[in-house]
Write a structure and sequence with these properties.
Elements (H helix, E strand, L loop, with lengths): L3 H8 L4 E2 L2 H7 L5 E6 L11 H12 L3 E6 L1 H4 L16 H15 L11 E4 L1 H4 L4 H7 L6 H6 L1 H4 L8 H4 L1 H16 L1 E7 L3 H15 L4 E5 L12 E2 L2 E2 L9 H9 L6 H8 L4 H8 L6 H17 L1 H15 L12 E5 H4 L3 E2 H7 L6 H9 L3 E3 L2 E2 L6 E2 L8 E6 L3 E8 L1
Parallel strand pairs: 2-3, 2-5, 3-4, 5-6, 9-15
Antiparallel strand pairs: 1-6, 7-8, 10-13, 11-12, 11-14, 14-15
Helix pairs in contact: 11-12, 13-16, 13-17, 14-15, 14-16, 16-17, 19-20
Length: 410
């Protein structure tokens, strides 16, 4: 077993740590660690991928990860990094989302035989008696120190509800509970969680007289300053029903050259010497490095079979082939009756969401950036009808990289 702290350091995972020397020594032996996941959507997105990968690295090096689905804290809402309060969700909505997240995490972590644990903090938070909680837990917190935390301080001008103000106490209670019942000595998370993590460290010291630890990761933005995982079409989800494996693959293969090394370190298990070799490729070979990134990340999330298919389909498309039989390309279905004698190209591009608006579609076509079955569409008024159907499919393309299969049903 290697020391996972060295792996984190080498790959750029570490932003802040409570005590680097002591924690590294502790990680020479198997420990339990945890990260909380917010169940405010039915799927995680790639913004959660760095924390997930950190748990996977921990497990690969012999440690026990604990994934905490925060159904209890989601009833309050984390103010960290938010300009306004989150919408209040029902317990039923949160529980349904938590089930989806559990299924996704099982693809990254091995939960058999206790190698990893998945727990829901609603199990211990919702039964709490509020008066007892304030007496036993709240008395250890200084309001002045809480207001100094970045997650609260940035919200004071726009307004911080008393409900949200309790969030730090609840997350600190989580860490103490996991230490007490699961011998968990390390909490990890994004750097916006640093104040909450320290609150748990301090609470456990006060209640148990024990020292536990925290480690945070950098908050990732792309080279052009965009938040990780955000595109013009919305978030890139880990759920294949929300973002298909092909779309997921395409997101990664379109990585900015400047982000290549970071993302290979963060989101793959490739050895560092292989990553360095890939990053030394010249400009003409950078596509090979991007393909390796896209393939490895898709394989980890969706499995080898889907990664193989996404890579094969992308190679065919970018190799200039028609691609009518490519199952992994995003699909839009319509009937032959709906197609009729033909639909103007700009309307079809908007209807299928290849373009957000009809004016955007007209502009794309007028600039020569729209294709049907590999041929440039000459005019936005060109009608795309039954003559374009091949094997029940019409293949559309917007720009250089955005493909869509229109599947024609009888």
């Amino acid at each position: 077993m290697g020391n996972v702290y060295d792996i984190f350091n080498e790959r750029g995972f570490v932003e802040q740590v409570t005590d680097e020397r002591v924690l590294r020594e502790l990680l020479d032996m198997p420990v339990s660690c945890y990260i909380g996941f917010d169940p405010t959507a039915k799927s995680l997105h790639v913004g959660s991928l760095l924390p997930i990968m950190s748990l996977a690295h921990m497990q690969r090096e012999g440690h026990r990860p604990i994934a905490v689905v925060g159904a209890g804290t989601a009833l309050v809402g984390d103010p960290s990094g938010k300009d306004e309060a989150r919408p209040v969700m029902t317990r039923e909505e949160i529980d349904a989302n938590a089930e989806g997240i559990k299924k996704q995490l099982s693809g990254f972590l091995d939960f058999t035989d206790g190698k990893a644990l998945m727990v829901n903090n609603a199990d211990w938070l919702t039964p709490l008696n509020y008066i007892e909680f304030l007496r036993d837990i709240g008395r250890h917190f200084s309001v002045n120190r809480m207001l100094a935390a970045e997650s609260y301080r940035q919200r004071l001008e726009s307004g911080l509800s008393f409900l949200e103000f309790n969030y730090m106490l609840l997350q600190a209670y989580d860490f103490w509970h996991l230490f007490k019942h699961y011998d968990c000595i390390l909490q990890m998370g994004g750097n916006d969680q640093w104040g909450n993590i320290l609150a748990g460290v301090d609470l456990t010291r006060r209640l148990e007289g024990k020292v536990i630890h925290g480690l945070t990761f950098p908050l990732i933005t792309t080279a052009d300053g965009q938040k990780m995982g955000k595109t013009h079409r919305g978030a890139i989800w880990l759920d294949p029903e929300l973002t298909s494996p092909y779309e997921y693959y395409q997101y990664w293969i379109n990585t900015d050259d400047r982000d290549m090394r970071r993302f290979l370190c963060y989101f793959t298990f490739l050895p560092m010497h292989e990553i360095e070799d890939l990053c030394r490729l010249g400009d003409q070979d950078i596509r090979r490095a991007k393909e390796m990134l896209a393939y490895e990340v898709t394989k980890i999330c969706h499995g080898r079979k889907e990664a193989d298919r996404a890579r094969s389909d992308a190679r065919q498309l970018f190799g200039g082939k028609n691609g009518d039989d490519l199952e992994a390309v995003p699909t839009y279905s319509m009937t032959l009756g709906e197609l009729g004698k033909g639909i103007e190209a700009y309307i079809l591009f908007q209807n299928t969401s290849l373009c957000a608006t009809r004016s955007q579609a007209r502009r794309l076509i007028s600039q020569g950036g729209a294709y049907v079955n590999g041929e440039r569409i000459p005019s936005f008024e060109t009608k795309i009808g039954p003559d374009y159907i091949k094997n029940n499919t019409i293949l559309l393309r917007a720009g250089k990289k955005k493909y869509l299969r229109v599947h024609i049903q009888d």
